């Protein structure tokens, strides 16, 4: 018992028994094992005090790297624009290819159904992009860096550049040339002419070069008479004419046609009901030789 004049504050205190809420010495956790400042930020600051600063530094470094890459890409593209040829002879090249394949040049106007199916499948940003699709290029670069399968990134402009200027060549350098040539084609020609040149020189399999030969050869109709089933079948062929050949690989061709119809739905050109109806309609596939279009 405390003596006279003492108070309970001056009485010695016994440590509290250890428990689930106290440390081994009977004190609140951390008081016996570490000082007041331990477990806090640098120089006693609260935990996480330096994180916003680190985040800002990381963001600044990331922005610097991205801007540097953009600058390098711009410089590289500028150099490619200087070393690649002019595209003023694109029509002459297209005509020479058609003459080589015994196809008339220029061919008929591109029908709306085929144009819609081609754009929806091959380059759905065709009417808004400046000859290059930066989103597709980014996916392509990511795929190359991560080893993923090629997701595709060539616009219709670049595909036309490949057919007219770099046919038979491949590799990263050639792909870069096609990017520059695609931009030049965008600057030099209206989209209607790009589509027409594309349709005139594209290969559709079975020795059918150009939309007119393919339309007449596969279905016995002129391009203007193509139905939705026929237009979507032809639009699907340009990616891989041999693999999707409807004469010898009908199941693969039908699967590709279904993909084209799904792209038309995704881009708002057809409703799902219209696409389903088109897939069920007959193709009237005849597989004739080139040049068998009706006279009328």
Sequence-ordered SSE layout with sheet pairings:
Layout: H1 51-83, H2 90-100, H3 112-122, H4 134-146, H5 156-165, H6 172-188, H7 191-201, H8 210-219, H9 228-237, H10 250-266, H11 272-280
How would you explain this protein's 3D organization?
It contains eleven helices and no strands. It is mainly alpha-helical and 296 residues long. It has two domains: 55-84; 85-280, Penicillin binding protein transpeptidase fold (Orthogonal Bundle). The longest helix has 33 residues, at 51-83. Residues 1-14 and 16-42 have low confidence and may be disordered.
* CATH class designation of the largest domain: Mainly Alpha
Contiguous helical run count: 11
Task: Give the low-confidence spans.
Answer: 1-14, 16-42
Q: Give the ordered list of helices and strands.
A: HHHHHHHHHHH
At CATH level 3, the topology of the largest domain is Penicillin binding protein transpeptidase fold
Rg, Cα atoms, Å: 34 Å
- Global mean pLDDT: 79
The helix/strand class is mainly alpha
- The first-to-last residue Cα distance is 124 Å
Specify the CATH homologous superfamily of the largest domain.
Biosynthetic peptidoglycan transglycosylase-like
Number of strands: 0
Major sheet size, sense and barrel closure: none
Structure at a glance:
The chain is mostly helical. It has eleven helices and no strands. Helix 5 (156-165) crosses helix 6 (172-188).
List keywords for this structure.
single chain; 296 residues; mainly alpha; Penicillin binding protein transpeptidase fold; 0% strand; globular; disordered N terminus
């Amino acid at each position: 018992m405390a003596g006279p004049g003492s108070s309970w504050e001056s009485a010695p205190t016994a440590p509290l028994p250890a428990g689930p809420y106290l440390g081994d010495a009977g004190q609140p956790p951390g008081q016996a094992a570490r000082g007041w400042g331990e477990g806090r930020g640098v120089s006693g600051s609260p935990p996480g005090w330096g994180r916003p600063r680190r985040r800002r530094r990381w963001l600044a470094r990331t922005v610097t790297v991205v801007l540097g890459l953009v600058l390098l890409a711009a410089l590289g593209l500028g150099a490619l624009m200087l070393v690649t040829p002019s595209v003023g002879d694109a029509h002459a090249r297209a005509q020479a290819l058609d003459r080589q394949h015994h196809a008339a040049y220029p061919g008929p106007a591109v029908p709306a159904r085929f144009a819609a199916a081609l754009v929806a499948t091959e380059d759905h940003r065709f009417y808004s992009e400046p000859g290059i699709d930066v989103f597709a290029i980014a996916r392509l670069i990511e795929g190359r860096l991560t080893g993923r399968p090629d997701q595709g990134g060539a616009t219709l402009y670049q595909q036309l550049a490949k057919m007219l200027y770099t046919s038979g060549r491949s590799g990263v350098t050639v792909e870069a040339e096609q990017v520059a040539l695609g931009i030049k084609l965008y600057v030099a020609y209206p989209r209607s002419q790009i589509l027409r040149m594309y349709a005139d020189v594209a290969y559709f399999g079975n020795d059918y070069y150009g939309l007119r030969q393919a339309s007449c050869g596969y279905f016995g109709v002129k391009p203007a008479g193509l139905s939705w089933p026929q237009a979507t079948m032809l639009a699907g062929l340009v990616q891989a004419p041999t693999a999707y050949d409807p004469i010898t690989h009908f199941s693969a061709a039908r699967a590709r046609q279904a993909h084209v119809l799904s792209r038309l739905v995704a881009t708002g050109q057809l409703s799902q009901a219209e696409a389903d109806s088109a897939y069920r309609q007959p193709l009237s596939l005849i597989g004739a030789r080139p040049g068998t279009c009706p006279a009328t």
